[in-house]
TrEMBL record:
GO CC entries: cytosol
Keyword Cytoplasm listed: yes
Organism: Astatotilapia calliptera (Eastern happy)
Taxonomic path: Eukaryota, Metazoa, Chordata, Craniata, Vertebrata
Gene Ontology molecular function terms on file: methyl/ethyl malonyl-CoA decarboxylase activity
Single Gene Ontology BP annotation: fatty acid beta-oxidation
Pfam families in the cross-refs: ECH_1
Protein name: Ethylmalonyl-CoA decarboxylase
Alphabetized UniProt keyword annotations: Cytoplasm, Lyase
Assigned protein family: Belongs to the enoyl-CoA hydratase/isomerase family.
Known function: Decarboxylates ethylmalonyl-CoA, a potentially toxic metabolite, to form butyryl-CoA, suggesting it might be involved in metabolite proofreading. Acts preferentially on (S)-ethylmalonyl-CoA but also has some activity on the (R)-isomer. Also has methylmalonyl-CoA decarboxylase activity at lower level.
CDD domains tied to this protein: crotonase-like
PANTHER family: ENOYL-COA HYDRATASE-RELATED (PTHR11941), ETHYLMALONYL-COA DECARBOXYLASE (PTHR11941:SF27)
Cited PROSITE patterns: ENOYL_COA_HYDRATASE
Transferase is among the record's keywords: no
Amino acid sequence: MSVSPRLLQRQRSSCVYSSIHGFNQDEIKEKLQAFHGGSIDLLKQDSGIAVLTINNPSRMNAFSGSMMIDLEERVSQLENWPEGKGLIVQGAAETFCSGSDLNAVRAISNQQDGMKMCMFMQNALTRLLRLPLISVALVEGRALGGGAELTTACDFRLMEAGSVIQFVHKHMGLVPGWGGAARLVHLVGSQNALKLLGGAVKVDPELGVNIGLVDGVLEGHQKTEGAAPLLQQAENWLSRYTKGPAPVIQAVKKVVLSGRELPLSEALRTEKDIFGTVWGAPANLEALASKSKHK
């Protein structure tokens, strides 16, 4: 598949690591590709909301090497989706994700390869978070280790009643390596992040809401009579933030992203540039012609 120069530039600007950091993406992809199993499935819907499914049920949706590559490729597709407005990340077969497949981890347990895998996944998840789409992780069952880190790479997190998010890295003699610790501090503060990582705390929906990690709790339709399927509930929840033309929703995400990541003066200049893309554009002109905000 050919990739446009514009898309390549967008990918590079969203990445944390490049060749100047000694990172060779093709090299690590060749190593990861040797460890097969599972898939990352992407469904783009006419509503502008896409569904990304972590699909490796026999290993609690753990990431094999080939799935890490799948993730990077699916993110590339979403970066190049002009009609996109929202994204739901879910796991197959009633569980979210249990992190890395231990078979792949053991095979690349030397420090050099581990660091390359770390950089690859930090790039992929940073690009996921920086997508011009409003994203939500739909946590059903368990999100463990790297799966917990994956939830932090979305703008929002919804949990099914009875589900758990747990940063179990300490039990494996590790700390997060996919960017989860840095993102967690931004989400819940350093004190709560230290508790969750140092204690490998099991975060249930109530605790998640209390510390600001979780944005909503859903009732499973199999457990609560009359409840809609979880994915439908998540789409309904997300749709309140994705109503409207795609260029406007994408602009909303971009200005929030710049405010979150950039120094104030740079964020203001970026906001000005993004404002310029929607001022006088079709959605703005249509709204001016048909509405009065002063009524």
